[in-house]
Design goal:
This protein has four helices and seven strands; from the N terminus they run βαβαβαβαβββ. By secondary structure, the protein is α/β, with parallel strands linked by helices. It has one domain: 3-Layer(aba) Sandwich (Rossmann fold), CATH 3.40.50.620. Strands 3-2-1-4-5-6-7 form a seven-stranded mixed β-sheet, with helices on both faces. Helix 3 runs parallel beside helix 4. It starts with a strand and ends with a strand.
Length: about 160
């Protein structure tokens, strides 16, 4: 396997679309598909009621269940060859940028692609677009992808069909 595609999964419908697109692209390239679900402990004010906090074990289990559900929804029992999945503790943007250093492509999902007047991309995508070590493809709800090459200025709109 030559190509390595990393896709971030958050549990949103947009990230599910990104997962499907990344799976198709990895199959087309006969590459490895690395599916990443990040989680991090809640940051509540010190004066907040401690009973409102979810413990780290439960948060990790929720992330693992979310990842398993996304894989099932995207691929059913027929998982792409070369698929590896990971639940990683940390801020999503930091985890994904780190994983992009060993990838040929980073794929993310967003409901605001292509850009709609009055809507902006979220902080995870914004951080990945500016800091990723590889090209980034952002899959939008309209079935389009916006590809951003780290070495080139701007981004290119490509079809996903």
């Amino acid at each position: 396997m030559n190509s390595r595609i990393v896709v971030g999964v958050s549990g949103s419908m947009a990230s599910l679309g990104a997962l499907r697109w990344a799976g198709q692209e990895a199959s087309r390239l006969q590459g490895q598909l690395c599916v990443v679900r990040a989680w991090h402990p809640e940051q509540l004010a010190p004066y907040a009621d401690p009973s409102d906090r979810l413990d780290a074990v439960r948060l990790r289990q929720d992330a693992e269940r979310g990842l398993a559900a996304a894989l099932q929804q995207a691929f059913g029992p027929d998982r792409p060859a070369g698929l590896v999945s990971e639940v990683a503790e940390g801020m999503a943007e930091r985890i994904l940028v780190d994983r992009s250093s060993r990838a040929d492509l980073l794929v993310l999902g967003s409901t605001s692609v292509p850009a709609v007047i009055g809507r902006s991309i979220g902080p995870v995508i914004r951080s990945c677009l500016s800091r990723a070590y590889c090209p980034v493809v952002v899959i939008g709800a309209e079935g389009l992808a916006r590809r951003h090459d780290a070495d080139a200025a701007g981004s290119i709109l490509v079809g996903t069909g």
